[in-house]
Amino acid sequence: MKDILGKEIVLKSINPWKMLVWLLITQLMVAFIGRSPGPLGILIGEDFSLTKAQIGLLPSALFAGQALASVPAGFMVDRLGSRLLLMSSAFCLGGSFIIITFQSQYWLLLLFIVIGGLGYGAMHPVTNRGIIYWFHQKQRGTAMGIKQMGITLGSALAGLLLLPLAAVHGWRLVLCIAGVSLLLAGIAAFIHYRDPAEVQVNASRQSIKSFYLSLLKMARHKPLLFVSLSALFLNGSQMCLNTYIVLYAYEKIGISLFYAGMLFVISEISGSFGRIGWGVISDRFFNGKRVIILVIIAILTAAASMGIAFIPTGTSFIAIVPVVIIFGFAVSGFNGIWMNLASELVPKEQTGLSSGFSIMVGSLGVMIVPPFFGVMVDQSGSYTAGWLTITCLMAVVLTMLLFLNKFMKNERLN
């Protein structure tokens, strides 16, 4: 008893922002490795002689694994806390991507990306749970934005470091070394991160039966369902930007591979600012309200995708940058707001499961939209139809958000 009380006192004295640093580091390293098929897609495609649709399946495979892992990971983190699962997720993704570098068959490449996606997907509810327990509501938008910034920063680093290094030394060697760095980051997080006392003392011990009942309740939770469906289309659009911006700029616009890669980096850095910026805007100017922020994001994404659709061949790199900044700031910056909203719609002890359920649904967009985008490019020989499809998807998102707002108002009245 004395030992337990001593642990509680020590844990209560821990600065939550220091714990956020470790959540950010692990999220960044997971994204650095997991999102590498986006910028490396052009080199992997050349190595395996892939079509555009097959290249589009690379990130889809990652997010297929994410969809499979998100709900079980949410269940496990609600029971065990975040610390152990931070390391386990890093090892799953890092180990799988190291194995990928030794494969010569496309189907094995996809299989191990799916397995790596299990670790990638588990990291989201694991880190989300940490944010919800370490921070109160009017800090969570900012804290979640900082943590989610790790995804876009990691992805940007993949474009900034992995793509040029892989162009010189080969994608296999570079990705293998990056995978080892993720294993080391997972060990460091396990050593330094601590769960809040509330998690350690009151850890959930729900049965498998209660887990399935809770999951069924999530599926019937209409506000959560509308948030998740909106995220489905936003996620798919975000991954289209990540997967095809390099190919589009290099093949259609005619700029060099280096500058095409820089557009990818710029979009992800813009998304990083968006993840913090939207969280701060939500916390400070909208009193923690999230839906209105998603509406603004959807409108900006629709405008940017329409603008990029009509950029003519031969346009300079500098002229494309402003459109890519807006596109990235919006569609790559929405995730923190999404994670907050999905977590705040349910009781605190169910945040892992709710975010896991929402991620599972949202991941379907990444599995479906990029390959569909690629098929349209292969069939039409033009990227215009693909970018305009994203504009249409944002109209669907706005409709979903209107329904979400209506249900939330009705619940407050009741």
Per-chain topology:
Layout: H1 2-12, H2 16-34, H3 41-48, H4 52-80, H5 83-100, H6 106-134, H7 137-169, H8 171-192, H9 197-201, H10 208-219, H11 222-253, H12 257-285, H13 291-309, H14 317-331, H15 335-344, H16 351-380, H17 384-413
Helix pairs in contact: 2-5, 2-6, 2-7, 2-8, 3-4, 4-6, 4-16, 5-6, 5-8, 6-7, 6-16, 7-8, 7-12, 7-15, 11-12, 11-15, 11-16, 11-17, 12-14, 13-14, 13-17, 15-16, 16-17
Brief digest:
The chain contains 17 helices and no strands. The protein is mainly α.
How would you explain this protein's 3D organization?
The protein is mostly helical. The chain has one domain (10-196, 203-408): Growth Hormone, Chain: A. It has helices spanning 2-12, 16-34, 41-48, 52-80, 83-100, 106-134, 137-169, 171-192, 197-201, 208-219, 222-253, 257-285, 291-309, 317-331, 335-344, 351-380, 384-413.
